What we know:
Layout: E1 3-8, E2 15-20, H1 34-38, H2 57-63, H3 74-87, E3 95-97, H4 99-108, E4 112-116, E5 120-123, E6 129-133, E7 136-140, H5 142-150, H6 157-174, H7 177-182, H8 184-194, E8 195-197, H9 201-214
Antiparallel strand pairs: 1-2, 3-8, 4-7, 5-6
Helix pairs in contact: 2-3, 4-5, 4-8, 5-6
Amino acid sequence: DSMTVASIDAETGRTVLIGLPRNMSAFPFADGSVMDEQFPRGFQGEECEPYCYLNGVSTWAADHAALFKRSKTPGVDATIMGIEGITGLEINYWAMVNLEGFKDLVDAVGGVKLNVRAPIPVGGLGENVTDYIDPGVRRLNGFQTLWFARARDGSDDYSRMARQKCVMNAMVRQISPQTAVRNFQKIAEASSAMLATNVPRGEVDRFIALGLKAKDQKM
């Protein structure tokens, strides 16, 4: 439900994060793609109902998986076609993170320090608000960090997207190689539950090296 493009300088590790609103509509798909053939006027009209927002592309594609031949991830493939159409960028790799795994990952590295600028509700999203994360610079555990990133009650999607970028930036800055090694088993267990990606095994070392460079760069 949250989509971010990371544009990374392969030499320096400097990174630009581009947030895409989940409720974007009527956007084009990459020229010549399967989705472009289905929606030449963009993702709109009766053909995409009731999924006519960017966060509905994946569900629409899963319901029409036969269009994607032997793809194991039609929802991801279709979403990438949309993101490429919106941004004009070629997406080299993708990673998909789930909520429970993200929470466990934050706990595995001992939490993350964030500057909470306003009270953040815990709950909402169709349920009752049960608590608040108080303002201030504080170390949040996985549950709290998840709500810091997810909360929409009393705010809008754009505020939520900004908080998500804060979390990503903080984790890159704060998770040291020493922390990663010390908590490797916990991180591995959390990561296996949280992450799906098409990054080849042969590229993992390269991305680790880029991550270490990114710690010292402006994001």
